[in-house]
Amino acid sequence: MKKIGILHGMESSFPPAFVDRINAMDVPGIRAEAVKIDRVIQGEPLQYDVIVDRISQDVPFYRAMLKNAAITGTAVINNPFWWSADDKFFNNCLAVKIGVPVPKTVILPSKERPPDTQETSFRNLAFPLDWQGMFDYIGWPAYMKPFAGGGWKHVYKIHDQADFFDKYGQTNQLVMLLQEEIVFDHYFRCYCIGSKYVRIMAYEPRNPHHLRYDVRLPVNSEKLISLIESYVIRLNEFLGYDFNTVEFAVRDGIPYAIDFCNPAPDADLHSVGKDNWDWVVEHAALYAIERARVHKPGQDNLTWGKYISRSVNKEML
């Protein structure tokens, strides 16, 4: 019997629905359940062929456990090694290389020194930085946000140079991005599962949280939607995420990828709405079953994106 597990925290709608949907499909030799852990011993496998990870970004113990599970053969969705290494600035760098439009972006050192460092730890960092060069490149207004993490935490709209230095002074030890503002005509949030199943959702980030999905796709947008779908697949193929969301802001007909490092995206019934929730439950279940079917015990069953696989083969992007 092949076993699919889901590892989750406070979520109450998606995880049980995911388990119930797989079991209702009644696929011979495949069952699903919430992951149960009573011990983790180095090099010993867990009794799961596939684990869908929804919580290890917040619980370091789970991330370590999943790496041990992966090295002993579990197909972990998403790859815990890549998830540990990835960040939003790298995402943008990769997008530039593979031809997906992104806002102009620079990365900033933390305003306060990290723990266990001192002034001499930063001998390679110019003082002052070329602030004017960065401001000229980005323009005003702009957005500043952490280079890693999510959930709209520590996101600032910046109006001018004085506003920048005021808000930058509030960021403490966070490493921040300064990013061009995209004044958009349309905005989309897109689920991507298995780098092939794509759900493009009209989304309005300026609305209250419970109304952000309460918008319609624009009329006569078939070509735009097709282009966005191709970008979603390309990004996830190179990043290697099995389960992710990508957000696009469309300005003058050009979709700019705004945020595409969301490997545990919101899948709550009450926020994404019934139609989107039904889609993500169904396709997450289908994909987990696909991974269980091809699972090979004791081997590497992780997804490694094209960036990693091409790097191993010394191929340029």
What gyration radius follows from the Cα positions, in whole Å? 21 Å
Beta-strand content estimate:
15-25%
- Overall pLDDT confidence: 95
Topology, number of strands? 12
Can you tell me the CATH architecture of the largest domain?
3-Layer(aba) Sandwich
Uncertain residue ranges: none
Q: What percent of the residues sit in helical stretches (DSSP H or I)?
A: 25-40%
Distance between the termini: 40 Å
Strand order of the largest sheet: 2-1-3-4
Structural class: alpha/beta
Shape: globular
- Major β-sheet profile: 4 strands, parallel
* Domain module count: 3
CATH class group of the largest domain: Alpha Beta
Reading the helices and strands in chain order gives: EHEEHEHHEHEEHEEEHEEHHH
CATH topology of the largest domain: Rossmann fold
